[in-house]
Design a protein that fits this description.
The protein has 156 residues and is an all-alpha fold. 76% of the residues lie in helices and 0% in strands.
């Protein structure tokens, strides 16, 4: 886990420097418009997201920073768009895991329902707050939290 968080924090922090620069001028406003991401790179991003989803369905710690790092490598730069996509993917991943746990009867409903309510309220309230902030501050917050989690898990 510590190594995964380290790679994710480093990738998110320095992802814009790791991406190849577009030939012939300015980068497109969105990485997927006008063929900005070539097929092998897009397939690599999809495969990486699949691995993150598999890991996240089992143990979600650090999954968000890993997804953001992959999106940064894919060429996304708008932190608000990245967070929106991360949230959508997180719901899909956790929904699939939840369905699996429901089918297998391994949920403690007393605690599970309390966590679901807390996660929903927390997700909506922090998203509404974060959208009002300058994207640079949100990006720096993600970097600080990512490195903080990395250091915590290495020390622990």
């Amino acid at each position: 886990m510590s190594v995964l968080l380290f790679v994710a924090a480093a990738t998110f922090t320095f992802g814009n420097r790791l991406r190849p620069k577009p030939k012939g001028g300015a980068a497109p406003s969105h990485p997927f418009e006008h063929g900005a991401v070539w097929r092998p790179a897009l397939l690599a991003v999809v495969f990486a997201q699949f691995l993150i989803a598999t890991y996240g369905g089992y143990f979600g710690g650090g999954m968000g920073i890993m997804m953001l790092a992959t999106m940064a490598l894919a060429g996304m730069t708008n932190i608000h768009e990245m967070n929106g996509l991360k949230s959508f993917l997180g719901v899909a991943i956790n929904g699939f895991a939840l369905a699996t746990f429901i089918i297998t009867g391994t949920i403690s409903w007393r605690y599970g329902l309390a966590m679901a309510v807390g996660a929903t309220l927390g997700g909506y309230s922090t998203a509404a707050f974060a959208r009002r902030l300058d994207p640079r501050y949100v990006r720096w917050f993600v970097i600080v939290v990512g490195w903080g989690m990395t250091i915590y898990f290495f020390v622990r």
